[in-house]
Amino acid sequence: MASTKLRVAVIGAGAAGLCAARHILASPETFAPPVVFEASDRLGGTWVYTEKNEKEDAMGRTIHSSMYRDLRTNLPKEAMAFPDFPFDPSLPSFLHHLEVLAYLDSYAEQFGVCDHIRFQWQVEDIRPIQRDEGSLGGWFVTATLQHPESIQQVTEHFDAIMVCTGHYTVPFIPPIPGLDTFQGRLLHSHSYRCPEPFANQSVVLVGAGPSGVDLALQLSPVAAQVVLSHKGQPVCGLPKNVIQLPPLLKVGQKTVVFTDGSKMPADVLILCTGYKYSFPFLDLAQLGLQETDYGVGPLYQYLVPPRHPSLFLIGLCQQICPFPHFHCQVLFALAVLSGRCPLPSVADMESEVERQLQQHLKNGGLARYFLKVRIQQWSYMDNLAQLAGFPPVPPVVQQIYEDTRTSRLYNVSTYRSRNYRLLGPSAWELVQDCGGNCIKIGDAK
Ligand SMILES: Cc1cc2nc3c(=O)[nH]c(=O)nc-3n(C[C@H](O)[C@H](O)[C@H](O)COP(=O)(O)OP(=O)(O)OC[C@H]3O[C@@H](n4cnc5c(N)ncnc54)[C@H](O)[C@@H]3O)c2cc1C
Ligand SMILES: *[C@@H]1O[C@H](CO)[C@@H](O)[C@H](O)[C@H]1NC(C)=O
Ligand SMILES: *[C@@H]1O[C@H](CO)[C@@H](O)[C@H](O)[C@H]1NC(C)=O
Q1: CA distance linking residue 248 with residue 81, whole number of Å
Q2: Which tens digits make up the pLDDT trace of 295-327?
Q3: CA-CA distance, 338 to 6, in Å (whole number)?
Q4: Residue from 167, 91, 97, 107 nearest 319 by CA
Q5: Contact of 256 with 204, CB cutoff 8 Å
Q6: Phi, psi for residue 225 in degrees, rounded to 5
Q7: How far apart are CA 300 and CA 349, in angstroms?
Q8: Secondary structure, 3-state, the chain
Q9: 424's torsion region: left (phi>0), alpha (psi -120 to 50) or beta?
Q10: Going by CA atoms, what residue is nearest to atom 12 of ligand 1?
């Protein structure tokens, strides 16, 4: 008898894809083991650091990860962790990227995910199969083996798809007048790897998001001068030799001009201007989706195309606590697929997304920031938990995330020296340097 278990294709073996595979494997009565397609030869996605920063790797693939050599996390491990898999308690709260990769390795190993990953298989095309009324329909997934000697392509049928391909790979380049006339070195933060090449240079960083601010910290000890150009409130706690100036008005051959009229010499211009969503393997129109100001939509609960509710785009939101967020989205998606969490009608899902967008605009939000869920992320995750019937993320995750945010706003140079200790689902305390023997420093919250 043919199996009636659902076959799910997971695209990508970064944190989100590993999480999807782990939970599919946990419901063997409903789901066949997943097939995880991973274009590279290693799991971990963003957390796989490579020195290479050319446009392409040896196989001609785009370099996926924007990781740099000396990155330390901007969230403490107590908030970063998947809710069902804590980090090693002997580690400090803020980790080097290699420790996060080791964590993802042990997560994959613990839950037996590795055997289900097809490494070096790049998904090229995902198309829905015409479906009869009431049936799931399913999908054809076409993938090619990324191998220099053998070109192999397969097309396989699946009942459902989890797209887990990340969105920090394709640089967004803002239209700055004169950018193409700049004679110095021009790069996007995607290609930044280490500070040494910028020794004694005048560096202008464009944008003060997480990358711009962190690169200012990285470069200030070695560069002759660092300018952080941005439109927001001044960033607190940057080293004295980092100058904050307004956005760029225009770029000359060796200088940059800011909107307040000031002008600075520049050897290097680093665009820390964010990334674009990219789904080259999807025909958005065919799925009832389109490119929008904020990325792609409409997506019910930020992840389901209303017209094709057996495909899920995991992890599109920004300003979130990524791993717990993936965990909730995956469990919700699996509850939908298993029938435990029926979705509203197509029309109701589409109007719900529109209602949310209007609400966002009414609250003064810009359309292009619709996916920056920030403070709504907590009620969003709680809502998914309630709809799908899984335990909500413990409140201590929010408490620690918000404490980190406050302390980062107070001083970006010092917030990573904090160490947290969990005391329960809604209790934590700060401790001094945690060498397995934590010393409490302050009242428990
Ligand atoms: C510089 C930087 C610093 C960050 N710091 C933090 C931090 O401190 N804490 C934190 O929690 N988060 C941080 N993040 C966010 C980070 O992106 C998430 O934590 C998480 O790693 C994203 O996982 P993902 O699985 O969604 O995507 P990714 O990690 O990008 O993984 C996607 C995977 O899909 C594969 N893939 C892509 N296309 C295809 C295809 N067509 N076929 C097959 N495979 C494909 C890729 O090879 C990759 O392995 C940071 C991000 C960046 C860029
Ligand atoms: C940078 O300048 C300092 C002081 O002039 C000099 O000692 C140092 O060697 C220079 N470094 C590089 C990499 O040029
Ligand atoms: C941030 O912390 C650094 C290092 O302790 C300190 O020198 C600096 O004065 C602090 N800045 C602010 C704005 O508090």
Answers
A1: 38
A2: 999 999 999 999 999 999 999 999 999 999 999
A3: 8
A4: 167
A5: yes
A6: -155, 140
A7: 6
A8: CCCCCECEEEECCCHHHHHHHHHHHCCCCCECCCEEEECCCCCCHHHCCCCCCCCECCCCCECCCCCCCCCECCCCHHHHCECCECCCCCCCCCCEHHHHHHHHHHHHHHCCCHHHEEECEEEEEEEECCCCCCCCCCEEEEEEECCCCCCEEEEEEECEEEECCCCCCEECCCCCCCHHHCCCEEEEHHHCCCCHHHCCCEEEEECCCHHHHHHHHHHCCCCCEEEEECCCCCCCCCCCCEEEECCEEEECCCEEEECCCCEEECCEEEECCCEECCCCCECCHHHCCEEECCEEECCECCCECCCCCCEEECCCCECCCHHHHHHHHHHHHHHHHHCCCCCCCHHHHHHHHHHHHHHHHHCCCCHHHCCECHHHHHHHHHHHHHHHCCCCCCHHHHHHHHHHHHHHHHCCCCHHHCEEEEEECCEEEEEECCCCCCEECCCCC
A9: left
A10: 322
Residue 369 burial by Cβ neighbours in a 10 Å radius (0-12, 13-18, 19+): middle
Q: Give the whole-angstrom CA distance, residue 42 versus residue 118.
A: 10
Could you give the C-alpha distances from 410 to 173, 216, 406, 431, in angstroms and in order? 29, 16, 6, 19
Q: Whose CA is nearest to atom 13 of ligand 2?
A: 199
Give the model confidence (pLDDT) of 62-76 as tens digits: 899 999 999 999 999
In 10 A of CB 444, how many CB atoms?
11
What is residue 148's predicted lDDT score, i.e. its pLDDT?
80
Give the residue whose CA is nearest to atom 1 of ligand 2.
200
Q: Which ligand is nearest to the CA of 217?
A: 3
Least confident of 28-32, 134-138, 220-224, 270-274: 134-138
- Pocket of ligand 3 contains residue 414 by CB under 6 Å: yes
Which residue type is seen at 365? G
CA of residue 6 to ligand 2 center, whole Å: 62
Rounded Cα distance between 112 and 121, Å, is 19
Q: Which residues line ligand 2 (CB under 6 A)?
A: 199-200
Task: Note the pTM of the prediction, 2 decimals.
Answer: 0.96
Residue 160 near residue 136 (C-beta atoms within 8 A): yes
Among 413, 415, 417, name the best residue to mutate to test ligand 3's pocket (greatest count of ligand atoms within 8 A of Cβ). 413
Radius of gyration of the chain (CA): 23
Distance CA 157, CA 144 (A): 15
Q: How confident is the model over 18-31, as a mean pLDDT? A: 98
C-alpha of residue 166 to centroid of ligand 1, in Å: 5
